[in-house]
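Colleagues,

For the teaching module next term, I've prepared a clean inverse folding example: a structure given as tokens, and then the sequence designed for it. I'd like students to try predicting residues themselves before seeing the answer, so please don't circulate the second half yet.
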């Protein structure tokens, strides 16, 4: 099963993380081929796009008023939801941010 894992900041982190912790998580999952793709996203380059009453509305940056920011993503290949949860729980941002898993069909 494939899962999209969204990596979000959290206004109340548990503990600071070291970039090398994330690098170790990435290397382990890349080696075992459970991480198919992933990257960090630049919130300063974000654009919100909506159409209301036929008018295109574009905003700069993350959604105004949001308490957390989408920081990155990973696409995981796991046997089931339980394995995906285990993988996500080992990600350093599980302690410093929030992770959201969403299953999607394999192509």
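(Answer key — instructors only)
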């Amino acid at each position: 099963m494939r899962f999209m894992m969204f990596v979000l900041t959290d206004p109340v982190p548990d503990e600071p993380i070291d970039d090398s912790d994330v690098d170790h998580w990435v290397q382990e999952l890349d080696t075992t081929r459970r991480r198919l793709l992933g990257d960090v996203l630049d919130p300063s380059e974000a654009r919100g796009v909506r159409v209301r009453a036929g008018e295109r509305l574009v905003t700069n940056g993350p959604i105004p008023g949001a308490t957390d920011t989408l920081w990155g993503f990973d696409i995981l290949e796991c046997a089931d939801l339980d394995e995906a949860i285990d993988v996500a729980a080992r990600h350093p941002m599980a302690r410093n941010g929030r992770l959201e898993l969403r299953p999607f069909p394999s192509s």
